[in-house]
Amino acid sequence: FRSVSQSRYQCDENGKRVPVIEGLDKVMKELLAPKPKPEWAGFNTIVIDSVSDLQAKSLQDIVAEDDRAKDVDSIGQNHYGKDTNRMKRIFSDLRSCRLNVIFTALPSFKVSKPPKGSNEEPQLLSVQPMLTDKVSLSLVGYVDFSWYFYQDSSGKIKILTRPKNKIKAKTRNDKIAEILGETIELPKNEPNLANIYSKISHLLKAGE
Asked: Tens digit of pLDDT for each residue in 184-199?
């Protein structure tokens, strides 16, 4: 296991702020090299936890580097455009590497806005990864599996593997989708990645 996350901003020896994204870019450059460094031997999976936080920090870095920005909270269309290109590049590079890649994201619940003075109740429009719309659609398009984790009314932790009730979930492989079914119920113990992997592996082997 090796963590390259930067939960707080760092500075170099000259006191200059180091963008959070640089740590990930450095790792991707090493992994995508024709001959990866020996230190990466034995690694099979990369986990970005979470991509929602990654985009937030990316936008903050972009604004901080813009001398024309009024302050760090003044995010303009040009900043969003640069971030969209950056995130798409990251997704594409990670998809091209030899390792498995897992992204986690917070959920975003988009609802309708009834007209002013109307008694109409807001309606749920979609549930998707908490990212800007363009980046969210890009991520879901790049990955093979886009699953939604939730807790049902009885308290059970489940994974939705296909679209349902405005939730943008998917399983690209039809055979795998048939074996896994619409939902996967996770073990009662903590639903960590090891337990999830074990559960899915068991289901796939049983369905062969």
From this structure: 988 776 677 778 888 8
104-138, pLDDT tens digit by residue?
Answer: 999 999 999 888 888 888 889 999 999 999 999 99
- Check if the beta carbon of residue 96 is closer than 8 Å to that of residue 32: yes
Instruction: Return the closest-CA partner of residue 113 out of 104, 103, 121, 105.
Output: 121
**Greatest CA span in the chain, whole angstroms?**
65
What is the number of other CB atoms lying within 10 angstroms of the CB of residue 39? 9
pTM across the whole model: 0.80
**What is the Cα–Cα distance from 35 to 61, expressed in whole angstroms?**
31
Tokens of 45: 């999976």
Amino acid found at 119 = N
Enumerate residues 6+ apart whose C-beta is below 8 A from 107. Answer: 127, 128, 129, 130, 148
